[in-house]
Amino acid sequence: MRFPIILGLSVLPALCQAESRPAAEPQILPLALTGPAYEIANQAYAAYNEKNYDLAIAKAREALRQRSDVDRLRTLIRLAERDKDRRDHPERYPGNKKGFGNGQRSLQAYAHGDYDRAVEYARRAVAEAPNNADYRMMLIEALQRQRRLDEAERATREAIAALGESPALTRRLASIREQKAVDLAAQGYAALARGDNDAAVSHAREVVRQYPDEMAYRRLLVSALIAQQQYAAARAAATEALALNGNDAPLLAQRGQMRLRLGDRRGAQQDFSQALAVGTLPLRDQASLYAALGQPREALARMQAARDKGELEPGDEVQIAYFLMQAGDDRGALGEFKRIDRSKGLSPKQTQDAAYSAMRAPDDTQAIAYFTRVLDYQKTGDLQMPDQQVFDTRRAVSDLSRVWGVTNTTTYRGASTRNGLSGAPSTSNDSLQNSTEVFWRPDGYRNARFVELYGRITDTLWNKEGGNDKGLDALQGAVGIRFKPFTEYNVMAAFERTFPLAGSKVSGDWLVRLGYGSSIGTDLRVDVPSWWTSQFYAEGGRYLRDKRNYFNSEWQLGRSIRLDRVSPRLVVFPHVVLAADYDSKMRSEVDANGRTRTSSDNAGGAGVGVGMRYWFRETKHKAPQSYIDFSVQYREKVFGDDSAEGVFARLTYSW
Predict the structure, then answer these.
(1) For residue 166, pLDDT beyond 60
(2) Which residue among 368, 398, 428 closes a domain?
(3) What does the buried/exposed string (b/e) look like for 213-249 if buried means 16 or more CB atoms within 10 Å of the residue's CB?
(4) Domain holding 252: CATH number?
(5) What is the DSSP string of 303-321?
(6) pLDDT of res. 468
(7) How far is CA 472 from CA 128, 244, 413, in A?
(8) Tell me: the pLDDT tens digits for 279-312?
């Protein structure tokens, strides 16, 4: 069972999903005054209100020295200098104070954060003195502060029409347009955050049209197209943006992800490598790219460095577990999953991945616990899983929890296929044999790399030829050990001791066996009513004392059909069969009449058959653990001994 490569990053979540704001948002409005500059500015306004113009100018200049970006302090200085000049030289101002009172009230309201009144008084001042640049600038700034950008733009254009072009008004008009673009981009990011991808694409296209050279808006457009699953369009938008700046690391990473989705693996690797070479990405994003490049150890190192520097975001730490899984360190990954589970808890999907990691570690107990939680999540609707995946998960719990079993097999003219280790073929052409075996796995399932200790009793119940041993005369026992060394390959090796029971005539011996099996569709399926099934086994062995070698093989191919009208756990299996046997003890024989019987040390046949299997003994968390299986075949001899042809039957009870 393979885990789905989940990089918390589909491969690149931080780079390909919506950001909360543009990466390089222009600062349009003056920052709010704080600290010493705020105190000094208040003193300047207070001095101006008290008509202490020299002190107001001095305080405003000091505040401006600390915060040169605050234009209203320059306005205060100009007003204080003007009013001081009017006070000291009244002859220069023959009664022309139009707008002065409302301008002063607007300035005071602005200073106290009452922008509505600041706008109201500024409009009155402009109406009274339309050629006064200070009043118009106060109106524009108060409107900007309220983000009434359309009105601010209109007021700026009216000022240019009344006063003519000036650097200050030109800069202000540009800043308003930029601020409107920032707001439009913010609407695009907000649309992405709430899942309105169509609106996000629309906002992004408009802001890119207005400011085509701003890379932050280009990245917004690419992210919006990705969210809309327009991967080809997203790749094209990223390519267009990179034509302006070929070393924009986030865009390179985004385009690489799109190339990967569209099947251009080489192009994706080039983009990922170039993005890493630029060197501006955060450590956590570098980790994502190294994972995408198939370098999980480098990814792990970057993510651990990000953790050490406190740069991880919520949910990032689980990526360390995924990188350890990719690097083949399932034991380390399981440790991370368990630590996160204890501290913050795992999501249902993360619990599922942790279960597979535990199975491979191998930690059977922990894997069973995680798989059980996964099945409970599916039952409550917290994790969506297809029916067959639910069954496969239950099958995993069954396999992991099995530590012992019993199998009873009765065969007519054939060998048992249990575990691909069946024993030598019978030297008798027509016989009925029974074998009962008990096995124990002392160390558990261990990701299908288990060791089994077993004991077996075998007897020939009936034999067509009266001279051959049967009943108590043929009763024999065996004890042995077998092991399966590989997870991916069904190879089994065994070493056992056979011995006579109840005074039988069987000679004891040492037996070495090696078997291989391969199967498709032999387990029950719940997603379809019928499916193709193939099973093959081959086994070779040697009796050391008797110096006897043998080989058995059988291949079945057919269609499994679930008989739902009878029981959803009953399956019929019509199939074709090929079989071949070899036994170094089988030789040609001459009967009493001197005739040579057709006999050799090998036999091969082909034919058709039908099997029927009933599954039972299941629980809420376990797939059926036991079955009864009956099959009957008819084969024609292809080569060798006559034992290859005729009827063959097998009845198996597995608990």
Answers:
(1) yes
(2) 398
(3) ebbbbbbbbbbbbbbeebbebbbebbeebbeeeeebb
(4) 1.25.40.10
(5) HHHHHHTT-PPTT-HHHHH
(6) 67
(7) 125, 91, 20
(8) 899 999 999 999 999 899 999 999 999 989 988 8
Query: What integer best gives the mean pLDDT of the chain?
Result: 86
Place of tokens 């092991």: 483
Residues 512 and 549 in one domain: yes
CB < 8 Å & 24+ apart, contacts of 190-193: 191/224, 192/17, 192/18, 192/223, 192/224, 192/227, 193/18, 193/20
3-state helix, strand, coil in the chain (%, to 5): 45, 25, 30
Same domain for 454 and 346 = no
646-654/404-412 β-pairing: antiparallel
Return the amino acid letter for 291. Answer: A
Question: Confidence class of residue 273 from pLDDT cuts 50, 70 and 90?
Answer: very high
Neighbours of 532 (CB within 10 A): 10
Name the token pair of 170: 């030109």
Query: Tens of pLDDT along 11-42?
Result: 333 334 433 333 333 334 445 667 788 889 88
pLDDT class of 171 with cuts at 50, 70, 90: confident
Using the predicted structure, report yes or no on whether residue 379 has a pLDDT greater than 90. yes
If one counts the domains in the chain, the total is: 2
Q: Is the peptide bond before 362 cis (omega within 30 degrees of 0)?
A: yes
361, two tokens: 């570690």
Handedness of CA 142, 146, 147, 153 (dihedral sign): negative
Domain that holds residue 480: 399-654
Percentage of residues of the chain with pLDDT beyond 90: 52
CA distance 17 to 219: 10
In sequence order, the β-bridge partners of residue 339 are none
